[in-house]
Amino acid sequence: MFHFAMSTVSMSVCITLTIAVIAHATLNYGTPAPRPFLIYSGAVAAASSVTVIGLALVARLSITQTLMLTTAFAVVLALLCEYAGVDVRVAPVYLAARAAGAGEKYDRVGMVNSVTWAPAAISGSAPERPDEDGDLHTDALFDYARLPAISYEECELLARAQREGADLHEVDRALAVLMRLLIHPTLARDPDLTRYLVDFQRRLHARRAILSMQASGQGDDIGQSAVQAQVQARLARLYSSLREEYSDD
Amino acid sequence: MIRAYELMGRPVITVDEGVIVGETAGVIIDTASTDVAALIVNVIGRFTPPKAVPYALIQGIGDDAVIIENASSLADFGALPEILDIGRPDSEIRGIKAITRTGRLLGIVVDLMIDLDAGKVVAYEVQDGADAALLVRAEQVITVGRQALITTAEACAHIAE
Fold first, then answer.
1. Any idea which of A88-92, A181-185, B27-31 has the lowest mean pLDDT?
2. Which of A63, A95, B18, B119 has the most CB atoms less than 10 A away?
3. Scanning every residue of chain A, which has its alpha carbon at the shortest distance from the alpha carbon of B1?
4. What was the pLDDT predicted at A225?
5. Model confidence band, residue B76 (pLDDT cutoffs 50, 70, 90)
């Protein structure tokens, strides 16, 4: 019986891990496999198997009933972890990282992204400041359309997304384009362009937040001008706080 | 300067909404330029795949948290396949062999040293099998390949010293 129990536990762990890897590879092609997920799956499978084997021995269940109970137990445990906020997956990695770094004497200096914050926050230079109607100057954007990484259509989409009347779908597509541009190896090395794109992203995100609020029915009474005012107020608060922070330095 | 491994497990918070969106799970390195292209984030939700935050959208990395612009800064790897074309996760660089251009095995890459202000890898920590570890400076690295990190012959001279 002991051998049966041990082989069931190991088999259950293997099956769970295999399913986890196949499911991850199928659903997220090209994505780096999250190691904590595998640790989590293995731990859940082992814990559920051991518990169910105990129950099976007491209640004299058949092999089929035992395996079904194992699966059910694993699902229940996973759901409990999910909704109770028990982050089993990250804990081992976090502890390992802490342990590995504990004895070292490397500098652990905090970083502030000087490319995207500091210069504009201090000087208030053009790309960081919204113009009177809260929009970003799109002339500069179209200047960048000559770069191979940005197509003219993408520039048009970005310009359209920041105008009044843009819908949530357009803003989402524009945000996706911005993300692609922000990781582009050539563009990311141009600090002016990066600052411009980051500012664009902030503005679009603020607009998206309000549009999605409207879409979900929370802001039916919010008109276009009110949306614009909210975007401006939100950004003004952000820039104002940053300017104070840097002037203190 | 910080080790890439030390970055893992820190909460990621948005400056816009003040929301914890996940925890750091690694970095993606542009192997051609040694720039940090993005941060990998395990988002809240146990079965959600990890996401990437472009380095330009990271406001600060401190001992206790990583601050990013907003929730829209998190990109799906599926929606942003380019990110894996230009770079490679640090977890894939750890464990590869470090070999000089002249064919001498230096050891196994165990970690990467990152300059957070510049957003660049400045050195690779290499373990040579014994307890001793050495740092190979990024400018001494010719290629960061899938199976080996090729360094200049001078990196070997550094060991002799």
1. A88-92
2. B119
3. A107
4. 66
5. confident
DSSP character string of chain A? -HHHHHHHHHHHHHHHHHHHHHHHHHHSTTPPP-HHHHHHHHHHHHHHHHHHHHHHHHHT--HHHHHHHHHHHHHHHHHHHHHHT--TTHHHHHHHHHHHHHT-------EE-TTTSHHHHHH--GGGS--TTSPPPHHHHHHGGGSTTS-HHHHHHHHHHTSTT--HHHHHHHHHHHHHHHT-TTGGG-HHHHHHHHHHHHHHHHHHHHHHHHHTTTTTT--HHHHHHHHHHHHHHHHHHHHHHHHH-
Average pLDDT over residues B81-100: 86
Determine whether the interchain pair A28/B77 forms a contact, defined as Cβ–Cβ distance below 8 Å.
yes
Report which secondary-structure segment, H or E, holds B91: helix B90-93
Whether the Cβ atoms of residue B117 and residue B135 lie closer than 8 Å to each other: no
pLDDT tens column, A18-71: 666 666 666 555 555 555 566 666 776 777 677 777 777 777 777 777 777 777
CA–CA gap between residue A198 and residue A216 (Å, rounded): 27
Task: Choose the weakest-confidence range: A3-12, A198-207, B41-50.
Answer: A3-12
Of B33, B72, B117, Cβ closest to residue A201: B72
B102 min Cα distance to partner chain A (Å): 30
CA distance B111 to B94: 6
Interface confidence, given as ipTM, is 0.78
pLDDT of A247: 55
The answer to whether residue A189 neighbours chain B at the CB level (below 8 Å) is yes
Q: Are strands B97-100 and B148-151 parallel, antiparallel or unpaired?
A: parallel
Residue of chain A minimizing CA distance to B84: A30
Indicate whether A93 pLDDT > 60: no
**Global pTM?**
0.62
Q: How far apart are CA A69 and CA A63, in angstroms?
A: 10
Nearest-neighbour CA in chain B from A2: distance (Å): 33
Mean pLDDT of A148-174: 80
Q: Which helix (H) or strand (E) holds B83?
A: helix B82-86
